[in-house]
Amino acid sequence: MVSRKELASYRLRPLADRVLALAGGAGEHVPLRAAVEHMIAVTYGMTYDAVVTRFRPYEAMVEEIVAFVTRSVPVTENPRSVKVLDIACGIGNVGLRLARRGYSVVAVDAVRHLVAIAREKHHSSGSPPNLSFHHLDVARDELPGAGTFDVLVSMHTLYWHPDPAALLAASRRALKPGGHAIILTYNRPARVVQTFLEARRAEGLGAAFRALRWLVPTAVFERFRDCDHRYLSETEFHQALDQAGFDVLEAHRTFLVGISHLAWVRARG
């Protein structure tokens, strides 16, 4: 029997359980469960890809991440010699962006079907050889090459992961002493109406309507994710980073009207 905590670590599986329950199954038929999970993962992956493609707030956030990765390594360093770990990579958009900049990227995710989608998507689009995808959860699985990565990226993993302390500890172990990480986490829920109104006040009505492109599908998927959503204040976020062995070099809010914390940190030796 799989525990609720274990189910929560696989972000899409609770939705599969609900679909199976509605279909009259108890979730014990393995081939059916696998088919449902695959269907949901494909739907999630394709929907997410369509939502974020050319979505300016997302593109700006990714470019921020790329810029911090660049700042994390010496200018004279050969990009291919720089090892980057992308945690909870999803369908691999960030990893691909970094690989195209020349970095050697290892992208991992705990959802097997999302890893399969990432591999297929980027293989068909001419994925560079310096990008690889792996099915694992760094908080609970052995990470090949732990302690050898120069830079780590964790984009919005802390807010859903069932064991954030273990995730941050594993992130620290993955890096070389003095290695850098770019870690993002949500500071509040992305409520559709509230965020729409905030975007309208901050950037105008056009920006607010464009924000719905991400807000609405995200709200739908969040409705079905059976995990404890964790929203950290800036103080809580920085305390967690400090306890995990990171020094915060720079931090600010980012993404839609500042709903996300971004921290550029260095692993203590």
Portion in strands:
15-25%
Shape: globular
Mean pLDDT: 85
What is the CATH class name of the largest domain? Alpha Beta
Which strand order spans the largest sheet, edge to edge or round the barrel? 3-2-1-4-5-7-6
Going by CATH, what is the homologous superfamily of the largest domain?
Answer: Vaccinia Virus protein VP39
CATH architecture descriptor name of the largest domain: 3-Layer(aba) Sandwich
CATH topology assignment of the largest domain: Rossmann fold
Low-confidence stretches: 1-10, 18-23
Specify the biggest β-sheet. Answer: 7 strands, mixed
Helix content: 40-55%
What is the N-to-C succession of helices and strands? HHHHEHEHEEHEHHHEE
Distance between the termini: 41 Å
**How many structural domains are formed by the residues?**
2
How large, in whole angstroms, is the Cα Rg? 18 Å
Class by helix and strand content? Answer: alpha/beta
Q: If helices are DSSP runs of H or I spanning 4 or more residues, what is the number of helices?
A: 10
